[in-house]
Amino acid sequence: MEKSKGQWSSKLGFVLASAGAAIGLGAIWKMPYVAGQSGGGAFFLIFVLLTLIIGLPMLLSEYIIGRATQKEAITAYKVLAPNTKAWAWIGKLGIIGCFLLLSFYSVVGGWIFVYSGVSVVGEVIAPTVEPGAFFGQVTGTPWIALLGLGLFTLANVVIIALGVQNGIEKANKFMMPLLFIMFFVLVVRAVTLDGAMEGIKFFLYPDFSNITGESILYALGQSFFALAVGFSCLVTYSSYLKKDVSLPNSAGSVVGLSIFVSLLAGLAIFPVVFAFDMEVASGPPLLFMVLPAAFSQMPFGELFLALFLILFLFATLTSSFSMYEIIVAAIIEKWNISRAKITIIIGILVFIASIPSTLTYSSLGDVSIFGRNIFDFTDFLVSNIILPIGNLLIAIFIMHIMDKNLVKSELLQGSKMGEGFYRTYRFLMTYIVPTVIVVVLGYLVIQY
Prior knowledge:
Elements: H1 11-22, H2 25-37, H3 41-69, H4 73-80, H5 89-120, H6 131-140, H7 142-162, H8 164-191, H9 196-204, H10 213-227, H11 233-238, H12 247-275, H13 286-295, H14 301-335, H15 339-358, H16 374-400, H17 404-412, H18 419-447
Organism: Solibacillus kalamii
Keywords: Membrane, Transmembrane, Transmembrane helix, Transport
Subcellular location: Membrane
């Protein structure tokens, strides 16, 4: 029976796993359509600033909590605050949030699974196929969408059941480098299309006239979503980390990669959107309409599309691994159940919980919750409510509950950073991070 206490075999394995948790649907799928709906270049600039000022300190905080305790999310808070059991609810909220996130994230993963399979046989960019209609067929046919969901869930179950080194780490080491290579191919083709410059300008030129309070709320949610912080997933990941690894260097690498991939995603998507006169604010379907259009203009486009979709599927899986792992590790810690058994049970529960979001674009299309369909409501609840609250609670915990000397020693251990770095981190976590989160959440309360 495998215990939840595993360990990364190397610093690279940890960084790639953390980057894999961050670089998935958040950076590749969600960033382009949210930016398209929220101001383009101005939104991206705000996202980058919030990622550096808010997201990076929060990422470090989760690393500190996990490595200091060598425990999964719920137990970590119990160890650090043994006299106040309520703090363990930060980890429990993370598990609830991850479960809800998986209930719509897995739906998109299923779409990608279907697209990957169909692209292999050359049916996605065939002359008779219209991208929008094809997307509608995939998402609007219940058995196809549910089949994709089932395959995506099964892939997660298999990898998580294999464990930390043999499953998560090996998968990330293989998947992430290949994704970057294919991304560069797509970006080069996208920016050389006729009319691409308008898309580049939209994404990189900050026009603040379209920015609203809601745009800033979405940028903060996107920052948290793109780094996978707020759910304590990375508390669990860093609990498998050796003490000689520099947390600042690891966090800096993950943040840099996340921003870079978000940049590549924008440069891959928006030039194509403008070149083919697509709707820039078309929402979740955007990526699935843009990719076929872009690759249809390339020699051997069907082959490259199939490769990219498979690698995009890999990136989606590496993110979902972290969500499954926080749930599985917590249950193994509490009840000492075998990893394989509990992973299968969690996979079944996630599949069932994902069915309403899966059917949003077909038989449950008329169902509305606070003016949003099931899929969009779940996304909004997780990204813009649960994630900010989770990050706020972690910020309060690490600055006011956790021992200050332990925070400092974990932050600087294995690193060349000094007292100045610690003071900057502490200032951001004490004043800037909670203030920004409270202001943004206050705006949300006033608006809704």
